[in-house]
Amino acid sequence: MSTSRIRKEVDAALLAFVDRQRPALLAISPDLAPMLAALDALLTGGKRLRPAFCYWGWHAAGGRDRRDGIVAAAASLELLQASALIHDDVMDSSDTRRGQPSVHRRFQSLAREQDWSGATETFGEGTAILLGDLCLAWSSEMYETSGVDGEHIARGREVYNLMRTEVMCGQYLDLLEGVRGSGTVEAALRVVEFKSAKYTIERPLHLGAALAGGTPEVTAALREYGRPLGIAFQLRDDVLGVFGDPAETGKPAGDDLREGKRTVLIAQTLERASPAQAAVLERLLGDPGLDRAGVDELREIIEGTGGLAACEAMIDRYAENAAKALGDASISGESRIALEELAVAATTRQA
Amino acid sequence: MSTSRIRKEVDAALLAFVDRQRPALLAISPDLAPMLAALDALLTGGKRLRPAFCYWGWHAAGGRDRRDGIVAAAASLELLQASALIHDDVMDSSDTRRGQPSVHRRFQSLAREQDWSGATETFGEGTAILLGDLCLAWSSEMYETSGVDGEHIARGREVYNLMRTEVMCGQYLDLLEGVRGSGTVEAALRVVEFKSAKYTIERPLHLGAALAGGTPEVTAALREYGRPLGIAFQLRDDVLGVFGDPAETGKPAGDDLREGKRTVLIAQTLERASPAQAAVLERLLGDPGLDRAGVDELREIIEGTGGLAACEAMIDRYAENAAKALGDASISGESRIALEELAVAATTRQA
């Protein structure tokens, strides 16, 4: 079973779940069709990283003989992620997601096109909050109704609950750093750990291991591999948010700079910046009207100070630690190959 | 077991659940303390109607011999409601909730007091979105870990899932009516049905019956009682939103008018208004700066046209239908008395 084959199965499971909900929603009111259309559009994109780590964690932990429901349980993480993305975009006022208008922008446009009289901005944001809530509710519904047997679902549920609390707390700490602006590498790394690293890689692996009823040893080994890989993944994402190709990231160039994200990359840059460079960075970072020249100026500072090189060195170190942990783990050849492949996908220089 | 005794048990179960989460959050970071404080403050208030209907539905459906976990399962509805309130207040830009600052306002104040440099408004709203998400995640966690046995939890989960989808869809339809402004009694009633009536009364009773493993007959009878009572409850809430005493409602006088809510009361008024009255109503309704004189002018129109009387007549009719359905139900005397008491609490002229 290859990683691309699992990806297709995850896509099919997601579609099947939403298709089961569709008639119930339209029975409440045909006016709910735009909500479903927005969700369909959002679910078309994405790398399905979290379901993949969950599936291969399950596989590596010895679950491969009881396959019932595991793909649907893993795919439910994609609905949790959809919820996080929709709400993130409201919080950050992002215009785009996965190369398309963000959900709140989509509904603002709908209201304008239909010439509705009320406040279109409020309508867009309110709808996005509700669709994110629906995705969050549906993620647990999809998990619970996946078809995995009750004993393993219950074991996994503990990890699922922990993961949700961690990611929401991590997001709060991220917002807090944004307004408080302590700007240290340490504070930025704490956000990375909870908002992203655990949520994207360590906990999905952990969940998979729990769903397989894996031993404490294999569970610990998978988490040992997942923890540094998760950090490397987010640091790569931060670099791509500044230097990535919009065609690959699905976001305009320098969008993270416009949003003023206090990433490890920025903290590494500030640690190395001259007072003049730091002043430019503090002035331009978070400017919603930042143009191409401003993006270039910031990129030069981030590269020139050595901030970028320091961040790349961190990525290499964390990725090496992950590879070493994977090498030490007692798992089958098939899952090892898949997890090596996923490690590359999570930290590659393309989005 | 009286309704006030159950209320105290629900309060204790909620506190115990949050107290179990508290150390885990503070271990992630002491910076999460304000999130917990905001939740503690919000959970202090509220009438606990949904847990009460769930508990007494369970009781009426014959669950009273296996009491393990039922109070915690019922109390989890209060976390779902906390999520809805926090997100509602962001969507409506409400300043107050249960007589205190709304969550987003609370965090805006915190950021200002701490003199944080970033955008305080965005921080407040972002935090409220996240705390609402956390409450939504915790509601299902509290339900699943309530201690009710697996078979009954699974039966109830189907109702729980349906209820969450319905309330979120109902909220979208409410937003949609707000911007589209069709203004008919029929459209307003459809919002009432899904956003409020089913969610507050019919489904909590249904959930309780499922958790008790009740017969189809008693389940149907409870829902028959809950459906009209839920509508009467929301119509009463709409009247209180315009005419209620701020000391009782925990909201400034006329707040629903300032928010421009398209309630059944407003639709009933518009159906009866002269062109001049309708013009005043359309001009003043939804004006965020509406002062006391404007509130009084709108109140006079709502009373003068007979809109208020029409709405009161609807409340009486729905409440009578509920009472008749309860009278016909084959349930024990103790649960009948409790459900009669709850019907009064849900439709009384005080908030």
Automatic annotation (TrEMBL), chains A, B:
Belongs to the FPP/GGPP synthase family. The keyword Ribosomal protein does not apply. Signal peptide: none annotated. This is Geranylgeranyl diphosphate synthase type I. It comes from the Bacteria. It comes from Actinomadura viridis. SUPFAM superfamilies: Terpenoid synthases (SSF48576). GO terms for molecular function: (2E,6E)-farnesyl diphosphate synthase activity; dimethylallyltranstransferase activity; geranylgeranyl diphosphate synthase activity; metal ion binding. Pfam families: polyprenyl_synt.
